Amino acid sequence: MEIKAFFDTRTSTLTYVVYDPSSKDAVIIDTVLDYDPVGSKVWTESVDKILAFLDGNTLTPHFVLETHAHADHLSGAQMIREAYPEAQVAIGERITIVQDVFKKELNLPDTFLTDGSQFDRLLKENETVQAGTLNFSVIFTPGHTPACATYRFGDAIFTGDTLFMPDGGTGRCDFPAGSAKDMYHSITQKLYTLPDETRVFVGHDYQPNGRELDFETTIGEQKRNNINLNEGMSEEEFIRFRNERDKELSAPKLLYQSIQVNVDAGSLPKSEANGKRFLKIPINIFRPDTSAESLELDKVG
To answer: Where is the Metallo-beta-lactamase domain (predicted)?
Structure first.
């Protein structure tokens, strides 16, 4: 088994292709569809790199996996599936919780289903999935979102936004239905119980202090050195830290665009009567501004 990483500098996202060079079977994890909110422009540079790698190595992708419904980039899953129709877009079955939450938050139409049927396959906790000669197991790791999943291929795990590099800490837990308590248990009772030599491939690298890109570490290193949650930190300490830290964070700049696309398995909105596609951008639902000025604007609206 080999692992090829692709880094999107605009969103600091890692996409991985896990493949068997002998059988040519492959699985893709956390793809990116390029999007610029200025002018609401979509293009496929990041997906094209993945497709070129698959084609250049004559690989057959069986799955396009999502670790969760990302809030910082649009998924390129449907672009991959368009090129490889047999590849299944898959995510943990708790995505239905996220769909239900954001259908209400974003007032999505009645036609938007919250049963996960937009995805080709909903994965169950502790399920082992065969992908040609590859196989992986599913570990539910809620906290960042209730639907986060970590995928384990042999001695390697792909943690999405649950664990970053040790100097990057953990994902935030302040999105709707997120939970610092759930994240603590996901990490300490599931991931940190894996062998210390288990390789950890993270979903983002924000390159703290300007260091070089790094995306692979180990469970042992995480337990010793993770700046947000090492093995000596108590549940109470982590919850207090995470809640206080998250209050200081701004919303991801692509939050609403990403969520609308990603709860729909990476599908862009359908064209409306004028032939155009539209994304909804709500006002003041992520930590609403309660200043007097803002409240007056709300009254006017």
So the answer is: 12-204
CB 65 within 8 A of CB 91: yes
> How far apart, in whole angstroms, are the C-alpha atoms of residue 140 and residue 148?
6
CA distance 165 to 91: 23
153 phi/psi in degrees, rounded to 5: -115, 100
CA angle 270/146/172 to nearest 5° reads 95
Residues with Cβ within 8 Å of residue 168, at least 6 apart in sequence: 202, 204, 205, 206, 208, 227
Residue 16, pLDDT > 80, answer yes
pTM over 0.85: yes
Q: Going by C-beta distance under 8 Å and a sequence separation of 6 or more, which residues neighbour residue 296?
A: none
φ/ψ of residue 292, rounded to 5: -60, -40
Length, in residues, of the chain: 301
Pair 71, 137: CB distance under 8 Å = no
CA angle 218–122–261, rounded 5-degree value? 90
For residue 265, the model assigns a pLDDT of 98
Beta carbons within 10 angstroms of residue 36's beta carbon:
11
Q: Which domains does the chain have, with CATH numbers?
A: 2-270 (3.60.15.10)
Residue among 217, 143, 220, 150 at smallest CA distance from 184: 143
CA geometry: angle at 208 spanning 168 and 193, to 5°?
20
Kindly report, residue by residue over 63-97, the tens digit of the pLDDT. 999 999 999 999 999 999 999 999 999 999 999 99
Could you tell me the CA-to-CA distances from 264 to 60, 178, 224, 239 in Å, in that order? Answer: 24, 19, 38, 31
Question: Could you tell me which of 119, 222, 239 has the C-alpha nearest to residue 173?
Answer: 239
Q: Are 44 and 76 in contact (CB under 8 A)?
A: yes
Q: What are the pLDDT digits (tens) for 211-225?
A: 999 999 999 999 999
